[in-house]
Design brief:
This protein is an alpha+beta fold and about 280 residues long. It is about 30% helix and about 15% strand. The chain has a 6-stranded antiparallel β-sheet, sandwiched between helices. A 3-stranded antiparallel β-sheet has the order 3-5-4. α1 packs parallel to α4 and α1 packs across α5.
Length: about 280
């Protein structure tokens, strides 16, 4: 079995790009995109553009009375299912464009599986809806929103929905040919469609979780004790990012959709790392 291209960045060791991975090539970061969407939500709330507990119908054409708020969407407690309708196996989100999202929004009350705020169910659909609400509230497209509220304040540029084709790094098939990445430029973009270089992604992790340059970490980050983390996976890429209060942090990206091992490696590296110093967290 061929070794998996792997990138590892942390606060305790020099960056590693193994088996054909690269620190400065664009790779899909999957659901780690949600952490950026959640950060944009927090920034909009901080600027008074919206409030976390605003009802969804304030921003989008959804049936009144669903009870879903922006906070519910950010915390996966909206009652919406994990996936949009009509997801396919080969390129699951290719057909989930703005028109498909609009259809979902018009009948959103029929998709809810539990009352908002009562239980947690991880939802890509919920983050697609949240992204649409944020772009509506801010009056700008998602990438522009992200640039303005998250990336520019951190002076980070290499995070985008449309990376240069000659700088994309994808997994390879049996005969060494690059695999075609999932299409995630439509309505699913805020939930998992971003590309970034590993180096830029590590800069995001340290800026948001260690140095906290934009304030307290967004509601999007998953919590396990003192660990703040998020992962992501597409057909041929997986990523884990995490940090703990003593300054330890790690980013692992692998060119494989088998996310469990990526998560395990990230947690293992965090456990082995010596406590860090937030002042020395640059990559």
């Amino acid at each position: 079995m061929r070794p998996v291209p792997t990138c590892i960045l942390s606060g305790s060791e020099a960056p590693q790009a193994l088996h054909g991975h690269a620190l400065d090539a664009y790779v899909q970061i999957g659901s780690l995109s949600k952490a950026l969407t959640g950060t944009a939500l927090a920034r909009l709330a901080g600027d008074g553009v919206l409030q976390l507990d605003d009802p969804l119908e304030q921003f989008l054409p959804v049936p009144r009375g669903t009870g879903i708020t922006l906070r519910h969407l950010a915390q996966h407690t909206s009652g919406l299912p994990r996936l949009p309708p009509h997801v396919k196996r080969r390129d699951p989100y290719a057909a989930f464009d703005d028109a498909a999202l609009h259809t979902v929004l018009q009948g959103l009350d029929t998709f809810v599986t539990s009352a908002p705020g009562h239980s947690e169910e991880y939802s890509n659909l919920g983050y697609a809806v949240l992204g649409a609400a944020l772009t509506s509230a801010a009056g700008m497209p998602y990438q522009e929103l992200l640039d303005h509220y998250v990336l520019a304040p951190l002076d980070i540029t290499e995070v985008t929905s449309a990376p240069p084709p000659d700088r994309r790094l994808c997994g390879r098939g049996l005969f060494g040919r690059p695999r075609r990445p999932w299409t995630m430029t439509g309505a699913i973009l805020p939930a998992g469609g971003l590309w970034a270089t590993p180096r830029a992604t590590a800069d995001l992790v340290t800026a948001l979780l260690i140095d906290r340059r934009l304030g307290e970490p967004a509601l999007s980050w998953q919590r396990a004790g003192t660990l703040l983390w998020h992962n992501g996976a597409t057909g041929d890429a997986s990523v884990f990012a995490g940090a703990v209060p003593d300054g330890r942090w790690v980013l692992v990206h692998r060119l494989t959709g088998q996310a469990d091992r990526t998560d395990e490696l990230g947690v293992e590296l965090l456990r082995r790392a010596a406590p860090g110093n937030p002042a020395d967290s640059g990559t």
